[in-house]
Amino acid sequence: MRTPTRNLTLLLGLLLAALPAHAQSPNTSAIAVVVLDQQGGVVPAAGVTVTNTATGATRTASTGDDGAAAFAALPLTGSYVVTIDKPGFAGEERRDIGLRAGE
Asked: Is the pTM value of this prediction over 0.70?
């Protein structure tokens, strides 16, 4: 019997959410994620991976109790892929995320 999976929604507020500007250098930026389920509830302990497509460098984090995870000081070179994974949920992936200095 097939186990149903629930969908995750990756909410990034236009995919990027600015972290405080003082935390960034002129050559870096940040990505902040909030993971929600289909009903709009936050999803804690979801695995989040950010991959730089130019370098292949990855960073991983788990969402907190508020469903949020943040990645600061990301190089501006290349675009990024954000992947969300949590057992019992269908995974989510967003590609071609470009960053600008100070965001």
From this structure: yes
